Amino acid sequence: MPSIYLGHKAFVEAGHEVLFAVPGPRARTYLYDGIQVREFRLPVPIVPQRYLWLHRLSLKVRWLAFLVVGTIIGLRLGRRFRPDVVYGQFYPAAPVAWLLGRIWKIPNITRMYGTFLFPYLHSWLGRLRKFDELLAFKIPCNYFIMTNDGTQGGDCATALGMPPARLRLWRNGVDLGMYDPDPDPAEVKNDLAIPCDHKLILALSRLDSWKRVDRVITALPAVVQRYEQTTAVIVGDGEDRAALEALARRLGVEQNVRFVGMVKHDRVARFLNAADIFVSLYDLSNAGNPLLEALCCGKCIVSLDNGATREVIPNEDIGILLPVGQLDTLPDVLVALLRDDAWRRRLGEAARARALATMQSWEQRMTMEVRLIEDLVRSAAGPSGWAREV
Description:
This protein has helices spanning 2-13, 52-78, 94-104, 124-129, 131-138, 153-159, 185-191, 214-226, 241-250, 268-274, 289-296, 309-312, 330-339, 341-358, 362-381; strands spanning 17-23, 28-32, 35-40, 86-89, 108-112, 143-147, 167-170, 199-204, 230-235, 257-261, 277-280, 300-304, 320-322, 388-389. By secondary structure, it is α/β, with parallel strands linked by helices. The radius of gyration is 22 Å and the shape is globular.
């Protein structure tokens, strides 16, 4: 995730030491762009999502395992790397960060990148089901930094009684320089064996069930029937990839779909700039970084009118937002856009203008966070200052 990497990198570039302890496939320690990474194994595997209830149970058990193992790993690392502030990245780490902060007598931060919690707040049964994520909002912290991606994290914080002074609801930054005013789609088409006369529909995300990339593939037969020169390019990887590939075969459009897999963030721009249409059809909200980067690259965007997506795309002069109940019109919209080069161009130009007028660069966004934490730790440590984050 760029927002995690660039956040850590910003502290390194500001002259601080950063140690990132994270579950991984094997135990290892390495240096990545100045970030000290310590991967550790958890004894509980995640059951695949196709076994829904076992999958949910495995996540709860893994959460418990993380509380124990993460705390032990943190205490061990703290013997040689005594931090001045500790971050809990995502909801499972919030209790660990709080406990380590109390033991080491240093500030602790809860850092969330969106949330699935809001739909569950309206019943005690829902709150019980999501108690682990809910706990992250209730655990004491000096600051609760939530990515404003439209999943209503701020509403969750308010509903759960978080003091407003503690909450920082910030949208991610974007790389404003990723825009290419004169892209060469032929390079991408050659690499992916796509006919040169095809137009490209791009979906860019982790291939998780709630990202709903299946909606793009499901719409494709009706699109191809009316506009044959179409290929959907799916950039990203995840547990749903095999199911999505099977869906394309079952619908008879496997020749019109290319699964690129996971790519490094610095290669994302070549796909965005080459695309004719960018599509994002997530269940909860579509105001995350892929859509922000599509705006930045001046893309014709088709998305859903849910969450806070309309805060990013306020009208149909900037992008097309389909009502959630009218997804059956998706093929019609895509075909109309594919046939109308001028319409796509107008939408792309308006999207680029919107990005330049409203969005921060990653450097601006991360400078806000670095300064916030520097001020916090200086006030906690006194005149001696600080140097380290874990």
